[in-house]
Amino acid sequence: MARLGGPILPPYENAETIDRLTQDIAATGPAEVICLGDSFDDLTAAGALPASVHDSLAGLMAGRRWVWVLGNHDPGPINLGGTCRADHLAAPLVFRHIAEPGAKGEISGHYHPKARIVLGGRSLVRRCALLDADRVILPAYGAYTGGMFCNHPELARLVSPCAEMLVLGFRPLRFPVAQSSTNPALRNSST
User: Fold this and answer.
1) In whole angstroms, what is the distance from residue 173 CA to residue 175 CA?
2) How much is the CA Rg of the chain, to the nearest whole Å?
């Protein structure tokens, strides 16, 4: 990001994300891993991964199908093995980077939803997933990623008025998204 004029990423970002991924894969033993895009800041960053990160990824990919859904930051083939696709169809689901209005059975990741909640008098910002009958918009997986508050108008146009947010943490909490602007425990911002 710094090369492109953006902020300098914290030095722990790659290691923390790989550690989390290693733990999740060990706990679940998936036959297939689907990365929903923007796995890297751009294709140059994907090609310049430190050897330790590259080796860790290769170890995680071994023996399982690995799909890189292409994002707006990493829009081309990623030279790390696995399969690169604009969308990944696993009927009845479609995995894509940017959610499409009106889509059914869609799982996407571009918007990185988050929520501000008040617990024990403390205001906390946490990653959350947005879900309704037609789609799931997943939070960012990387250690250093911003996000969009779940009641942002861009997200509101994608999910139904009955959508829920699953706020992640030690114990996930589930709330209606519509409640987030009226409930004092769910003080979100649209910025």
Assistant:
1) 7
2) 17
Strands 148-149 and 164-167: unpaired
Prediction pTM value: 0.84
Domain map (residue ranges) of the chain: 1-91, 98-191
**Residue 56 CB neighbour total at 10 angstroms:** 19
Greater pLDDT, 116 or 187: 116
Contacts of 85 (CB under 8 A, 6+ apart): 67, 68, 69, 70
Q: Which of 6-15, 100-109, 127-136 has the lowest mean pLDDT?
A: 6-15
Contact partners, residue 114, CB within 8 Å, separation at least 6 = 125, 126, 127, 128, 139, 147, 148, 149, 150
- Pairing, β 148-149 against β 113-119: parallel
From first CA to last CA, the distance across the chain in angstroms is: 22
Q: Which residues neighbour 152 within 8 Å (Cβ) at sequence distance 6 or greater?
A: 111, 190, 191
- Measured CA to CA, the distance from residue 62 to residue 58 in angstroms comes to 6
Take residue 152 and report the two structure tokens written for it.
């942002």
**Cβ atoms 92, 134 nearer than 8 A:** no
Q: With beta carbons less than 8 A apart as the criterion, state whether 83 and 66 touch.
A: yes
Indicate if the alpha-carbon torsion angle 89, 31, 130, 148 is positive or negative: negative
